Amino acid sequence: MKIEDIKIIKSDDRGIIYNCGKSSFISRKKGSVSADHTHEEREVVFLVKGEVELTIGKETQIVKAPIKFETAPDVYHKLIALTDIELVIDRENE
Question: What pLDDT was estimated at residue 22?
Fold first, then answer.
C-alpha cells in the first residue's frame, strides 16, 4: 500500500489549493474572490459544494453545486463565494 501526502499548492486567508495530479482541489471561504482574471488555457471547473456568483465574459449568474462550467482561452472569469465552497479544476493542459 502506498500512501502519500497531498501537496498544497497555495494556502492563504481565502482557503487552500491542493495538487491532485492533473486537477486541483480548492476550498474557499465565504466572501472570498477567486480567479478574477483571464489566461491562455481552457479551464474546466467543477463546483462540488456551495454557492457562487459566477462571471464568465460579460455574463454573471448565481449558481449552486453541483455544477460544471468551462472558460474558453482568454475569456475573463471570476468567482465570489456566497458560502464556503469546494471546487475541482481540471488542468488538462499541464
Answer: 87
DSSP-derived letter for residue 6 is P
Q: Look up residue 46 and give its amino acid.
A: F
Residues ≥6 apart with Cβ < 8 Å to 71: 42, 43, 45, 56, 77
The count of structural domains within the chain is 1
List 37's β-bridge partners, or say none: 77
- CA separation for the pair 61, 54 (Å, rounded): 5
Please report, as a single letter, which amino acid is at residue 25: F
What residue numbers bound the domain in which 75 lies?
8-90
In a domain, 56, yes or no: yes
Q: Model-level pTM?
A: 0.85
